[in-house]
């Protein structure tokens, strides 16, 4: 069941905002502090709370969960604020959130103070599993991470813990979707394996310990293993924060191919990025028909005197405010000024 809309009132940097999501790929761009990661984390936290409620699964293995407790626990674990009072844009104040799927809705009110109320309606049993992938990879820190996070204070937020739990599942007997795995394994030059709680890249000449692999390769290896063990499936929601981090710019096309293939397989993808090549590759897929009309949406987030604002388009060129292109244009202008004397025009 697809996510269709997120409506915010006085939540962090957003005074009033409505995100109408595409069923396939959703790309968030904007300068630092515009709220991109907040959106990804909020969608993840609320979706996971609703999924756990439907499954009768509390946090850390608890049973008979209450929605208010699940939402509170997920928000605190994912964002790591001092208290819920940090969420309303105006303090002391109240924030209102509505997250909608095709046949379900979750409404949350935060504040004043530490107050929280949550209500869900509709077919929440149809909500799929969300997966949040942070900017850094976790395969190199996977050994012992889950137990350490459960029993000790940690600077890592809950998204790292949940991701490691998902990575800990054994591969499917089928080995995962070959059509999605083959391009990744071809780029890696090998296969991802887990042995005795540690990850390796298996090459024809032997296994390489994952911490010795390039960080960009480790990031792709995470996607491969999540496909292999079924965590990243046709009903999943993938929330990917800065997929370009530590990836060679030449991998932008591969990343866009992976994202489009996931959307075609039935997953719904949300990503926040600052990368020109990646956003352009995805927009090109819309222009060429590789992503069907209405299958993708681009959101430009920015901050002004009213707080966080946004605009939406079905391709990159439809956005009037593009922080990535603005930065490139500024650089080009300064290069021209440095290379040519005043009044001289480039040939």
UniProtKB/TrEMBL annotation:
GO terms for biological process: double-strand break repair. Gene3D superfamilies: P-loop containing nucleotide triphosphate hydrolases. Residues 5-55 form the Rad50/SbcC-type AAA domain. It comes from the Bacteria. GO terms for molecular function: ATP binding; ATP hydrolysis activity. Residues 213-278 form the ATPase AAA-type core domain. This is ATP-binding protein. It comes from Sorangium cellulosum (Polyangium cellulosum).
């Amino acid at each position: 069941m697809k996510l269709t809309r997120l409506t915010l009132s006085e939540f962090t940097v957003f005074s009033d905002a409505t995100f109408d999501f595409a069923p396939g790929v959703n790309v968030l761009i904007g300068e630092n502090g515009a709220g991109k990661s907040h959106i990804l984390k909020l969608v993840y936290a609320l979706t996971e709370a609703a999924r756990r409620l439907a499954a009768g699964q509390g946090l850390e293995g608890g049973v008979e969960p209450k929605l208010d407790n699940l939402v509170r626990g997920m928000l605190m674990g994912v964002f790591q604020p001092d208290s819920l009072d940090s969420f309303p844009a105006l303090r002391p104040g109240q924030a209102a959130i509505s997250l909608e799927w095709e046949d379900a809705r979750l409404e949350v009110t935060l504040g004043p103070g530490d107050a929280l109320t949550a209500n869900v309606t509709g077919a929440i049993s149809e909500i799929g599993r969300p997966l949040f992938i942070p900017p850094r990879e976790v395969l190199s820190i996977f050994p012992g991470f889950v137990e350490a996070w459960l029993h000790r204070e940690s600077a890592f937020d809950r998204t790292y813990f949940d991701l490691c739990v998902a990575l800990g599942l054994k591969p499917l007997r089928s080995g995962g979707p070959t059509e999605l795995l083959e391009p990744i394994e071809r780029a890696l030059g090998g296969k991802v394996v887990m042995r005795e709680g540690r990850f390796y890249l298996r090459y024809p000449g032997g296994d390489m310990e994952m911490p010795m692999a390039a960080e960009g390769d480790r990031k792709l290896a995470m996607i491969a293993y999540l496909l292999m063990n079924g965590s990243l499936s046709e009903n999943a929601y993938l929330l990917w924060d800065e997929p370009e981090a530590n990836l060679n710019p030449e991998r932008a096309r591969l990343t866009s191919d992976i994202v489009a293939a996931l959307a075609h397989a039935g997953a719904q993808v949300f990503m926040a990025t600052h990368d020109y090549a990646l956003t352009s590759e995805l927009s090109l897929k819309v222009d060429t028909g590789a992503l069907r009309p209405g299958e993708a949406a681009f959101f430009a987030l920015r901050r002004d005197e009213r707080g966080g604002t946004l605009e939406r388009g079905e391709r990159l060129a439809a956005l009037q405010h593009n922080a990535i292109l603005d930065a490139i244009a500024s650089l080009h202008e300064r290069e021209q000024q440095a290379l040519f004397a005043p009044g001289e025009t480039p040939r």
